[in-house]
Amino acid sequence: MKRCTLLFFAIFSFYGLSLNAQNVHFVNSGIVEFERTVNMFAILKKKAESSKSSNLQLAYERYKQNEPQFLKLKSVLTFKDSKTFYRQGQNDQIFESSVFGADPRYGVNGLIFHDFSKGYVEIQKNVLNEQFLIRDSVLKVKWKLTDEVRDIAGYSCRRANGLILDSTYVVAFFTEKILSQGGPELFSGLPGMILGVALPHDNINWFATKVTEVKLDPKIFEQQLNGRPANLKAMESTLNSVKVSNTTELKWFLLL
């Protein structure tokens, strides 16, 4: 009798787990709204200290007194199956400075299309007052999964640590409940949608504020991007030709 009872509970538990697994809802089409946060105090302080210029020091102190610490920018990612379309740089605030110079972290306005099934990305962006259409392979990130979990926009997300562009440390949070393997900007390559990204050493992060599941017409991914054709290597040569030689600045032109 005891053996029959144990067998009954074993069978009941098995079917219970099977039913729960079948009831898990996965999302394969929808829209993710992101907010990008840039710590301006930290970035401008580094610029002022590295230059050792009294003008930059004064500009930094003036900025701290009159401006908010965080610059926030909104972006939208549309996804369906293996394709994503990301619209950058919808600004809540504008940063303009003739003293500190241009920096892609302050605000960008570009379009990024990923086709993960074919392994390529297209980027439409304005660089040096010219519009480029950059087509290349999906950017590779060396990811290492961890056991840390965080809730983002209503989804339980697992943390992964990664290395991008050979030397940039990145922290990402992804959910397996959204089947697309995309994310904000060029970040991808995890077993699910990336809903949070932080670059701790660069004082910038992206976190989803809202996820909307909606059936999308595949035709929305057929829109044509425009610009002077290039790939990432060609873009690097273009930027080097105008003496954008600072490693950090070059990285941001390519990454964001």
Task: Describe what you observe in this structure.
With 256 residues, this protein is of the alpha+beta class. It has a single domain (29-255), classed as outer membrane lipoprotein receptor (LolB), chain A. 26% of the residues lie in helices and 40% in strands. The chain contains 5 helices and 12 strands. Strands 7-8-9-10-11-1-2-3-4-5-6-12 form a 12-stranded mixed beta sheet. The model is unreliable at 5-15 and 17-21 (pLDDT under 50).
Give a brief outline of the structure.
It contains 5 helices and 12 strands.
Radius of gyration over all CA atoms, rounded: 22 Å
- Please state how the strands of the largest beta sheet are arranged side by side: 7-8-9-10-11-1-2-3-4-5-6-12
Helix content: 25-40%
Mean pLDDT: 81
Strand percentage lies at: 35-45%
Q: What is the CATH architecture descriptor?
A: Clam
Question: In angstroms, what separates the terminal alpha carbons?
Answer: 67 Å
User: How many structural domains are formed by the residues?
Assistant: 1
Q: How many strands appear in the DSSP assignment?
A: 12
The shape, in one word, is: globular
Major sheet attributes: 12 strands, mixed
- Total DSSP helices: 5
What is the level 1 CATH name?
Mainly Beta
The CATH topology is outer membrane lipoprotein receptor (LolB), chain A
Structural class: alpha+beta
Which residues form runs of ≥5 with pLDDT under 50?
5-15, 17-21
Order of helices and strands: HEHHEEEEEEEEEEEHH
